[in-house]
């Protein structure tokens, strides 16, 4: 019989040790808020309902997890058991298994949570603890097992006897429970402790006292259980996640020449035989094709990049870039740009909300904003689409096969017709017919001996 499964994510704590205005679980790890890492891993499991317990920064958490989770508000932070209790209105009367995981554990993997759930169900347990093996278990609760391998008790470090302190299997703070047993036991949890809070591990003790089976599943990767409580732990999580992501890409056929200095977000997709060079930062929903060369010192966010494209020492955000394209060095592709195949965007060229047709070129020192550039267009050095009149942005249209001479200004709104030529140094304020040569510059005047006359006056 298939068991219904639920998940509760604890994400209500303020995180005072972060010393930050930003709500703790929203601190990013490899470009994504750590609570979102947890939710995204859970979303790959067969979970019937996910409830995130929110408190501080509730609205921001809802924004980031919109559509991925239900929410329950913990108005006062009175402990982890109290936090889980807030999910009772959603889960309290349901049959099944509930996974409880902290929103500040961004490294936990779906495979580990699935193994924990499966072990819990196979053991017919009322509670199962995810444990880890710590070389230095100082500060962690120790897992004390009986002769049959079941959990006898959890002993906090400060309460452990010397023999118990030698135990290196520790409580990670992630659990599985029989859902009804969980909410029944939560009602019995007391806050009779130094902090005056309701602690979730007390549920384990309650279930044991009632003779229920409490099991444990030990993860083989202790690092993924890291809880992020301060900036030091945040940097540790970033390092581990970065290594994990980079290794996955390399095993999938991507060459990363310097993984320690390459930063790739968890949602980035990269095709085989692409080369990623040092100092590259790839984030958001970026997708890169095969045989591309990215970097060095390149930042790409929320872009689709085609195959065999080179992006060198450049920045690109929220745009599409075709195949066989050359970008950089030192180019800036701003949002809502569409760069078609075989385009060249050269050094110190800025493109903003513009479309470049197949085979067009802007090789150096140009600004092309709010523009439609056709196929096989050549935009000369220092050319600018003058798109802003002080109040509104206007469109420049450059049709197929146009040649724009160096140091030209195209004052929008303006259209340059198919196959037209713009003479170097022109300022174009009116439409240019196709196949025409447009010259818009002052006539040159040479004044003979002018410098000598000027010097004589001095």
From TrEMBL:
Pathway named in the protein's UniProt entry: Nucleotide-sugar biosynthesis; UDP-N-acetyl-alpha-D-glucosamine biosynthesis; N-acetyl-alpha-D-glucosamine 1-phosphate from alpha-D-glucosamine 6-phosphate (route II): step 2/2; Nucleotide-sugar biosynthesis; UDP-N-acetyl-alpha-D-glucosamine biosynthesis; UDP-N-acetyl-alpha-D-glucosamine from N-acetyl-alpha-D-glucosamine 1-phosphate: step 1/1; Bacterial outer membrane biogenesis; LPS lipid A biosynthesis
Record: residues binding acetyl-CoA: 387-388, 424, 441
Membrane-spanning residues: none
Region (N-acetyltransferase): 253-458
Binding annotation for Mg(2+): 104, 229
UniProt xrefs under Gene3D superfamilies: Hexapeptide repeat proteins, Spore Coat Polysaccharide Biosynthesis Protein SpsA, Chain A
PROSITE patterns recorded: HEXAPEP_TRANSFERASES
Chemical reaction(s) catalysed: alpha-D-glucosamine 1-phosphate + acetyl-CoA = N-acetyl-alpha-D-glucosamine 1-phosphate + CoA + H(+); N-acetyl-alpha-D-glucosamine 1-phosphate + UTP + H(+) = UDP-N-acetyl-alpha-D-glucosamine + diphosphate
Signal peptide boundaries: none
Entry binding sites for UDP-N-acetyl-alpha-D-glucosamine: 10-13, 24, 74, 79-80, 141, 156, 171, 229, 334, 352, 367, 378
Free-text comment on the cofactor: Binds 1 Mg(2+) ion per subunit.
Cofactor: Mg(2+)
Job description of the protein: Catalyzes the last two sequential reactions in the de novo biosynthetic pathway for UDP-N-acetylglucosamine (UDP-GlcNAc). The C-terminal domain catalyzes the transfer of acetyl group from acetyl coenzyme A to glucosamine-1-phosphate (GlcN-1-P) to produce N-acetylglucosamine-1-phosphate (GlcNAc-1-P), which is converted into UDP-GlcNAc by the transfer of uridine 5-monophosphate (from uridine 5-triphosphate), a reaction catalyzed by the N-terminal domain.
Subunit details: Homotrimer.
Family: In the N-terminal section; belongs to the N-acetylglucosamine-1-phosphate uridyltransferase family. In the C-terminal section; belongs to the transferase hexapeptide repeat family.
Protein name: Bifunctional protein GlmU
